[in-house]
Structure formats: structure tokens, C-alpha cells
Write a structure and sequence with these properties.
This protein is mainly α. It has one domain. Helices cover about 65% and strands about 0% of the residues. Helix 2 crosses helix 4 (about 105-120). It starts with 10 loop residues before the first helix and ends with a helix. The model is unreliable at about 40-45 (pLDDT under 50).
């Protein structure tokens, strides 16, 4: 978080916390609930492979959500995944990831979060 001299939050950071983080956290909780009820039959392979793949997807999703709060909001407001359709997020994330000097794995995690969450909240 950005702080002024003396350790006080800036007005911009305080505003982001009030306006952006709360709704994002609520959206994240909704998406995580939706992911927890996904049928185990999604994908191919053995049930152990499916479980491992699903857990990997969830971890990438969680890391992407955390990155959206810690990295993205350092420069601009928090965007909710449903502000764009799923197919619009990858080019946005690639462009912004390069500007923010994010690693390839961080970019993949952000894409996992925004594309998956946008697909759950913008079904088309």
C-alpha cells in the first residue's frame, strides 16, 4: 500500500480499498463457491489426474486473484473480471503484464483468474 510520510494511507489508496477491494473480494468469494461445486467429471484421465488438474487450476486462480490485488492496483483501480468478456482479457493482461514487468507464470495466473471468473460471471 502506498503511504505518505508518517505512515498514513494516501487518499487514493483509501479510496481503492473502499471502492475496489470490497466488491472484488465479494466477486472472488462467489467465484470460489462456484468452482467448489464443479463436477468432478470435467476433463479427461483418471480421477486422480482430474483432481490434481483441478487443484492446479484453483491454485493458479487464487494466485491470479492475489496478483490482481497486489500488482494491478498499485497503478490503477481494481477491475472486476466481469467488466470484459473472457476473450478480451488475455491481450489486456499480456500488455499490462509487460508494462509491470511480470513473469510469464504471473501472467498465466492473472489470465487464469480473469478469464475463468469472467466466464462464470458473463456466460455467453
Amino acid at each position: 500500500m502506498r503511504r505518505k510520510k508518517g505512515g498514513h494511507l494516501t487518499d487514493r489508496t483509501r479510496g481503492m480499498m473502499k471502492a475496489g477491494i470490497g466488491p472484488v473480494a465479494l466477486g472472488f468469494a462467489t467465484i470460489m463457491l462456484a468452482l467448489s461445486v464443479l463436477p468432478a467429471s470435467i476433463g479427461a484421465g483418471s480421477s486422480a489426474q482430474k483432481a490434481a488438474a483441478q487443484e492446479t487450476d484453483r491454485e493458479g486462480f487464487r494466485r491470479g486473484r492475489a496478483l490482481s490485488v497486489t500488482e494491478c492496483t498499485g497503478c490503477h483501480r481494481a477491475y472486476r473480471p466481469n467488466e470484459y468478456p473472457p476473450q478480451d482479457w488475455p491481450p489486456i493482461i499480456k500488455k499490462m503484464g509487460a508494462r509491470a514487468s511480470l513473469s510469464e507464470s504471473q501472467i498465466r495466473d492473472l489470465e487464469s483468474y480473469f478469464v475463468s471468473a469472467a466466464g462464470l460471471t458473463n456466460p455467453k
